[in-house]
Amino acid sequence: MTEYQTIDAADTPLRDGTIKLHGPAAFEGMRRAGRLAAEILDDIAPMVQPGVTTAAIDDKVRELTLAGGAVPATLGYRGYQHSSCVSINHVVCHGIPSEKTLKDGDIVNIDVTPLLDGWHGDSSRMYLVGDVSLKARRLVDVTYECLMIGIDKAKPGARLGDIGAAIQSYAEQNRYGVVREFCGHGVGRLFHDAPEVVHAARAGTGPELKPGMFFTIEPMINLGKPPVKLLADGWTAVTRDKSLSAQFEHSIGITEDGCEIFTTSPKGLHKPPYS
Q1: What is the pLDDT of residue 275?
Q2: Is 75 helix (H, G, I), strand (E, B) or coil?
Q3: Average confidence (pLDDT) over 224-240
Q4: Which whole number is the average pLDDT over 182-201?
Q5: pLDDT value for 10
Q6: Which residues are within 8 A (CB) of 17 and not within 5 positions of it... i.e. 6 or more apart?
Q7: Which backbone phi and psi does 252 adopt, to 5 degrees?
Q8: What is the 3-state secondary structure (H, E, C) of 81-95?
């Protein structure tokens, strides 16, 4: 049975399987953290160009995070040594920054999580590198649409499965595969918490959405089939069939009459192209 727990913004929550319900002060904390995440993703857009290394992008993310008064939540998380994840082409998620350079035609996801005053602003966005093929652009567009279709289902009284069902239906209408191995998650003072937000589900199932819930929606959509595999580094997930993959992520809070997106772009850079 799903358990809910109302907590004060000053409380230190436990990762105990309960779904946390937050009040106005927590919403304000998430707005600040989410805005910083979105500003970072806005500000790195001009440097996502052919010839730039993913390590240089990671360095910039760290610089912008610290300048914003936050720390990168990923730095040191379970031994991870970077301030972002940078996932190129067939990398589904958790791509590790390195001296690898971006190439003309690449599509890349950049995932950031500034920890600001105890709150996690978790968001990712796709970027197009140079001259990108029409099929890759279409995948990116549909993945963004999947995110927003899922967010549209996030309202009090709905079920968590309604979000995944809407995303799965739209992706499969376009003959894309929906990744099952990774999902969205509760967020707030904890980086990853209950509930798990799966992106392929049955409508009417799962926990009821209640005001005060915070979680991410982050569909990973493959040009080919859904299955992924984990590389030997223990982090990088790639498509098994080596098809392209795309992802967008927002952190949201359930309100009395719908939901609030904490990580929307201040500059209106919601999906590429960004110029």
Answers
A1: 81
A2: coil
A3: 98
A4: 98
A5: 83
A6: 3, 194
A7: -130, 165
A8: CCCCEEEECCEEECC
Show Cβ contacts of residue 129 under 8 Å, excluding neighbours closer than 6 positions: 48, 49, 50, 102, 103, 104, 105, 106, 107, 108
Instruction: Give the number of residues written for the chain.
Output: 275
The conformation of residue 79, written as its DSSP 8-state character, comes to G
DSSP, res 217: E
225-260 b/e with 16+ CB inside 10 Å = b? ebebeeeeeebbbbbeeebbbbbbbbbbbbeeeebb
Which residue blocks in the chain are alpha helix, DSSP H? 24-43, 54-67, 134-152, 160-173
CA distance 262 to 70: 16
Query: Tokens 């998620």 — which residue?
Result: 93
Is 234 strand, coil or helix?
A: coil
Question: What is the Cα–Cα distance from 260 to 151, expressed in whole angstroms?
Answer: 9
Q: How many CB atoms lie within 10 A of CB 210?
A: 15
Strands of the sheet containing 220-222, edge to edge, are: 177-178, 220-222, 245-247
Residue 108 near residue 64, CB atoms below 8 Å: no
pLDDT tens track for 98-149: 999 999 999 999 999 999 999 999 999 999 999 999 999 999 999 999 999 9
Amino acid in the structure at residue 89? N
Instruction: Assess whether the previous peptide bond of 50 is cis (omega < 30° from 0).
Output: no
CA 217 to each of CA 130, 146, 156, 183, 258: distance values in angstroms, whole numbers, following the listed order: 28, 10, 16, 8, 15
101 strand-pairing partners = 53
